[in-house]
Write a structure and sequence with these properties.
The protein is built from four helices and no strands. The chain is mostly helical and 81 residues long. It has a single domain, classed as Non-ribosomal Peptide Synthetase Peptidyl Carrier Protein, Chain A. The longest helix is centred in the N-terminal third of the chain and has 16 residues. This is Carrier domain-containing protein.
Amino acid sequence: MSKIADIIMKETRLIIENKGEICPDFDQQAEFLSDLPMDSLDLATLIVSLELNTGLDPFRDGFKQFHSIAELITLYENTAA
């Protein structure tokens, strides 16, 4: 697993746990809004946290659609390349 993937997985888990939810086991195929106890505010928090932790902003040129953790990892890895 790449460093970016590790950060995204860790931050996702932290956001879920910090709001008092039990974090289910999940993998990169998990979809944020259907498989995980997350809402749109949690996603916004995740994006801000990822920018602070990675220094990357794949949304600088506008919103890019993603549903799963794997899709978000790809966005960040492509930005880092």
